[in-house]
Amino acid sequence: MNAATVLLLVDVQNDFLPGGRLAVPRGDEVVPIANRLAARFANVILTQDWHPANHVSFASHHPGRQPFETIELPYGRQVLWPDHCVQASRGAEFAAGLDVPHAQAVVRKGYHAHTDSYSALLEADRATPTGLAGMLRERAIRRVYVCGLATDFCVAFSAIDAQAAGFETWVIEDACRAIDTRGSLAAAHRALAAAGVRTVASEQI
Ligand code: VGL
Ligand code: ZN
Fold this sequence. Notes:
The chain has 4 helices and 8 strands; from the N terminus they run βαββββαβαβαβ. By secondary structure, it is of the alpha/beta class. The protein has a single domain, classed as Isochorismatase-like (Rossmann fold), CATH 3.40.50. Helix 3 (151-164) packs parallel to helix 4. The longest helix has 14 residues, at 151-164. The protein is globular. The protein starts with a strand and ends in a 5-residue tail after the last strand. Bound molecules: pyrazine-2-carboxylic acid (VGL) and zinc ion (ZN). Zinc ion binds at residues 49, 51, 57, 84-85, 110.
């Protein structure tokens, strides 16, 4: 893929794989697909969910609450998760099978204790940028392909924000896997379509 195109590979981390603390069903299946895809892109950027141990998205931080319940925070509704992707933990490391040595940047997100960030561009307060949009603009990137984990959270929010930031954005559907809690996958598909994000299969790239 040309210099104006980037592959954004979202959160392919141990905690999102089978056996991890927030395992995405069949999440491991994206690893070989992502490896094959990435080899065809000159520009690859990785994202890494990277939470402090006391993160507001952890159910353990809210006495009496269970994972997958939702609560209202100052910025809106927040799903509560099992502790996951704690900074510098094994679970936060990239999947051992991920083979993307030419990745140019790692965008960490979710590192503010009081704010989650599914999106690689804008935190959940919808006000704090991660800096990724600026980096892409400065490098004259025009098209963004997104894949990884999980379809209905970090992939969808990143794709919607990339499209809104002015990049022609595509989700590579077979290179993602979903958590699908309480209708989240159907909601994500509706939101992606409404945002004008395009979808494609990896064989078509
Ligand atoms: C994610 C839930 C919590 C994701 C990250 O990568 O989709 N989901 N943190
Ligand atoms: Zn997270």
